[in-house]
Write a structure and sequence with these properties.
67% of the residues lie in helices and 5% in strands. It is built from 22 helices and five strands. It has a five-stranded mixed beta sheet with strand order 2-1-3-5-4. The protein is globular, with a radius of gyration of 25 Å. The chain is mainly α.
Length: 545
């Protein structure tokens, strides 16, 4: 008996070694981006990260859940608090900015292996075998969208862990007998509530999971899930409702403003195009440039949809597929157009759908080949597998190259930006407010409250940015002067001097603006209050990155 047990252990060792090596290779896909961005050189480029980071500081210092970089130190009622609370660990360990940024990167890095494990488990719930799960997880981790979301201070990694953890737990609740089922359902509800406290994009999970249980006549599991999940979401919305008037913000106001700007149908068409582009771009890096304007990107979305339907029919509609069926319409109805990042929570399912369609095509091709050359019947399947490996290598190479180029550019720009920040820190008055595109970053380096909304109201921006803009005259009364901060890096195209001259020409058209500081990369203008609301959008030959 002992010899048999030993033999079984030995026989399992190669499989365990293979799994360990495969998982190590998965982690290697995110290790390079993490090292490139270890000190957060892209902080402030995407707005959300600076807001999360500043709110984390507010929580760490005991000031409440606020956005301390904005004028008036308003309450944070837009983003749920769990991710800033997690980031506040870095501020508590080291309160010195920017010295504490590597700690923030370390907190992101801790989440990525857990996200990879949960991705593998979640893909198994939709019917993917071990090899396919590893391949699809590699395609997910190797995409530039995931790399950026993992290394920038975005809430996606934490949300993904909680979101996928809840889905896996609920699948286990359905499959487990007796008391174990109850505990899995409770765990699924707790994780779903925590996911919603990380991103309100977790709403489809709160709806899908109990509905999925009810359709399987597991009313007890649905009740336990809801009892654990709903209090967290209800508490967050109650708190936000108590504080929303003080800051006049939140997703609802922003959504209604942008719908009024674009129109419901116009926004819907924009989002459908953005969804197709996001599916194609996440699958093959740079594919939109390769297609050269031809509308072939819709083929990827159609394939993903057809494959998901095929998977659902074959597997009895697993929870992850049901959640995806609710999540995608939510994105289409939303107003944020950069869907490459927003589809990440359900991107593994869409990948599985594309893989299912590829396998279906391979089977059809193999059937035809087998009639004439039976030995070549497996060739289509191996061809698609090879294509997937080529796509993976292409995506990783393209993603690392793109990220390396952007990081190198930001590192080169930062010393000149620090000179401007230093001047502002030395010359700003207590009643000043910064008008800057990278408002959160600028405020953290200067100690002066900053506003992107006021910048958008004053300077040339898109119609959507203008709609969300806020004139200086609407600022809290303690602010009597604005410092308009312009960086050459706010624009792209041409050389730095040309961009700066373009910014000078735009600033000259701002009523009352007076130049206070100039360098080879930055301009600072003082603008007295009140400022007239922005009128027609000014035109520039250059565009923001």
């Amino acid at each position: 008996m002992e010899h048999r047990r030993l033999a079984d252990k030995v026989s399992r060792m190669p499989r365990r070694v293979t799994i360990a090596v495969g998982f190590a290779l998965l982690l290697a896909l995110v290790a390079v981006p993490l090292w490139l961005c270890r000190d957060q050189p892209l902080l402030g480029d995407n707005y959300d990260d600076a807001v999360y980071w500043s709110s984390a500081r507010s929580l760490a210092t005991g000031s409440g859940y606020r956005v301390p970089t904005l004028p008036g130190d308003p309450w944070q009622v837009k983003y749920p608090p769990l991710y800033p609370l997690y980031l506040s660990l870095a501020w508590r360990a080291d309160p010195q900015f920017p010295h504490n940024l590597p700690l923030a990167t370390a907190l992101q890095a801790v989440l990525l292996p857990l996200a990879a494990v949960l991705l593998l488990l979640a893909l198994r719930t939709v019917g993917c075998g071990r090899a396919k799960s590893f391949l699809l997880t590699a395609l997910m981790l190797g995409s530039i969208s995931f790399a950026l979301s993992g290394v920038i201070l975005f809430s996606e990694p934490l949300f993904l862990c909680l979101f996928l953890g809840s889905i896996v737990a609920m699948e286990r609740a359905m499959a487990s007998p007796g008391p174990a089922s109850r505990w899995w359902a409770i765990a699924g509800g707790i994780l779903a509530g925590a996911a919603y406290l990380t991103r309100t994009a977790g709403l489809p999970l709160l709806v899908a999971a109990p509905l999925w249980c009810i359709l399987r006549r597991r009313y007890d599991a649905a009740m336990r899930f809801l009892l654990m999940a709903l209090p967290a979401g209800a508490a967050w919305h109650y708190w936000a409702a108590l504080h929303v008037k003080a800051s006049d913000g939140g997703y609802l106001r922003e959504y209604l403003t942008l719908i009024a700007t674009n129109g419901f149908i116009g926004n819907l068409l924009i989002q459908l195009g953005a969804l197709s582009a996001a599916v194609a771009g996440n699958l093959v890096s740079g594919v939109m440039n390769i297609l050269g304007g031809t509308p072939l990107q819709h083929v990827f979305l159609i394939a993903a949809t057809a494959g998901c339907i095929r998977l659902g029919r074959r597997r009895g509609w697993p929870l992850y597929l049901v959640v995806t069926a609710l999540y995608i319409p939510m994105l289409v109805l939303w107003t944020y157009h950069n869907l490459d990042r927003l589809i990440l929570p359900v991107w593994p399912v869409l990948l599985a759908g594309i893989a299912e369609e590829a396998e279906h095509c391979a089977r059809l091709m193999a059937t035809g080949i087998a009639r004439h050359r039976p030995r070549l019947a497996p060739a289509p399947r191996w061809l698609f597998a090879a294509a997937a490996m080529v796509v993976l290598i292409w995506n990783v190479q393209a993603g690392w190259s793109e990220l390396s180029a952007v990081v190198s550019l930001r590192r080169a720009q930062r010393p000149k930006q620090l000179e401007a920040f230093s001047w502002i820190r030395s010359h700003a008055h207590s009643g000043d407010v910064l008008l800057a595109w990278k408002d959160g970053l600028s405020s953290m380096y200067t100690g002066v409250p900053a506003s992107r909304a006021a910048f958008s109201a004053l300077m040339p921006r898109s119609a959507e940015d203008k709609a969300l803009g806020e004139p200086l005259s609407a600022m809290p009364p303690q602010y009597d002067r604005a410092l308009l901060l312009l960086f050459a890096s706010d624009l792209e195209g041409a050389d730095e001097r040309t961009r700066l001259n373009s910014l000078k020409a735009l600033a000259a058209r701002v009523a009352g603006a007076r130049q206070e500081y100039a360098s080879g990369a930055a301009l600072v203008y003082s603008v007295p209050r009140p400022v007239s609301p922005a009128g027609a959008v000014l035109r520039s030959g250059l565009t923001r990155p």
